[in-house]
Amino acid sequence: MSDVAIDATNLTKKFGDFTAVDHISFQVKKGEIFGLLGPNGAGKSTAIRMLSTLSAPTEGTALVAGFDVRKEDGKVREHIGLVSEKLIMYDELTASENLRLFGNLYDIPKDVLEKRMSKLLDFVRMKQWADHRIDTFSTGMKQRINVIRALVNQPEILFLDEPTLGLDPQSTAEIRELVRRINIENGTTIILTTHMMTEADMLCDRIGIIDRGKIVALDTPVGLKRSVSGSDTTLFEFEIPNLTPSLVSSVKSLGSVKSVVQDDPTHVKVSSTGDDSFDTLVDMLRKNGAQIRTVRNLEPTLEDVFLKITGHEVRDEAAKAPIPTRKGGPPGMRPRKRVR
Amino acid sequence: MGIKRALRHSAWICWKDLLEFSRSKLRLVMLILMPLLMMMMVGFIFPTGDTISQQPIALANQDMAVNGTSLGDSFVAQLETVNEQTGMMELTDAADFDDIKSKIQDGEVMGGIIVPSTFTSDILSGRQGNITVMTDQSNPQMSATIQTVLTAVIEQLGFLMAEQNLNQTYGVSLEQAPAVLMPYNVELKGIVPGDPNYFEFVAPGIMAMVVMMSLMTGLPHAISYEKDMGTLDGMLSAPISRWSIIVGKVMAQSSMGLIQGFIILLLSVLLFGVTIQGSILLVVFLIILTVFSFVGLGILITSFADKEETATMVMMTFMFPMMFLSGVFFPIQQMPSFMQTLANFLPLTYAADALRKVMVLGAGIDAVFTDVIVLAAFGSVLLAIAVPMFKRAMSR
Question: How far A110 CA lies from chain B's nearest CA (Å)?
Answer without folding.
Answer: 13
